[in-house]
Write a structure and sequence with these properties.
The protein is built from 6 helices and 14 strands. By secondary structure, the chain is of the alpha/beta class. It has one domain (2-241): Carbon-nitrogen hydrolase (Nitrilase/N-carbamoyl-D-aminoacid amidohydrolase, 4-Layer Sandwich).
Length: 261
């Protein structure tokens, strides 16, 4: 199967513009699974509760979902994308998994970063894996990578690919995801954005460097730090089923749960 990383510069509040840009990149090259950045449709640097409330959408509804579902159905592909989710009076930083058959999964970011804590509720979905015709896909978002338990939980639940929508401002994630892939023997697909956002006196710069890492810790593709682009790489998801390093060492069979806090 082929994974496509959508790396783009989202302009805050420009929903239609951001959706069109993402669609253009997706349609520029064929893949089976496309991973888009965190909050790709709205932009990230939120100034007020009111503005993100107005931009947020219900899971499986709204302009973003309709656009992504239409692409998935027409192109016979799967998409993971980050968006602001509205449920009642609560907002979540979420990621959806959509395929030709519609909405397959929705994940709410567990570990909120920085000012996200002012606007979103901590996620309450837990870490789940979705069995699709192209492989078993687990979801996490950006800062979740800083917590090894997130990727480990997805791996223990059978994930072959961890889709990782991100808006990275810390420089160490691309190298850190090599460790997440290696220690869990899974593929990781981090889709980051680029550009700068300066709003409400808060300036943020995003590092790009979207990447796919193999279960052996090899960077299969890494995009530029500052270009909008689609990167596609072919993988065999079943390679993530092998957790043995040699005849004596199996990373999961040798876990010692009784000693872990």
């Amino acid at each position: 199967m082929k994974i496509g990383l959508v790396q783009m510069d989202s302009h805050f509040g420009k929903l239609e513009e951001n959706l069109q840009k993402a669609e253009n990149l997706i349609l520029s090259q064929k893949a089976d699974l496309y991973v888009l950045p965190e909050l790709f449709n709205t932009g990230y640097n939120i100034s007020t509760q009111e503005e993100i409330t107005a931009l947020a959408e219900k899971a499986g509804a709204g302009l973003t979902y309709e656009r992504m579902a239409k692409i998935a159905e027409k192109e016979k592909c799967y998409l993971v994308y980050g968006y602001g989710e509205k449920e009642g009076d609560k907002l979540y930083n979420s990621a959806a998994l959509v395929g030709p058959e519609g909405m397959l999964g929705n994940y709410r970011k567990t570990h909120l970063f920085g000012r996200e804590n002012l606007f979103f509720q901590p996620g309450n979905t837990g870490f789940n894996v979705y069995d699709t015709p192209i492989g078993k896909i687990g979801l996490m978002i950006c800062f979740d990578w800083y917590f090894p338990e997130a990727a480990r939980t997805l791996a223990l639940k059978g994930a072959q690919i961890i889709a990782h929508p991100s808006n990275l401002v810390l420089a160490n994630c691309p190298e850190g995801m090599i460790t997440r892939a290696l220690e869990n023997r899974v593929f990781t697909a981090t889709a980051d954005r680029i550009g700068q956002e300066n709003r409400g006196g808060i300036a943020l710069s995003y590092i790009g460097l979207s990447e796919v890492v193999s279960p052996q810790g090899k960077v299969l593709i890494r995009l530029s730090p500052d270009e909008e682009e689609l990167g596609v790489v072919e993988i065999d998801p079943t390679l993530a089923n092998e957790k043995s390093l040699n005849e004596f060492n199996n990373l999961f069979a040798q876990r010692k749960d009784q000693y872990y806090y």
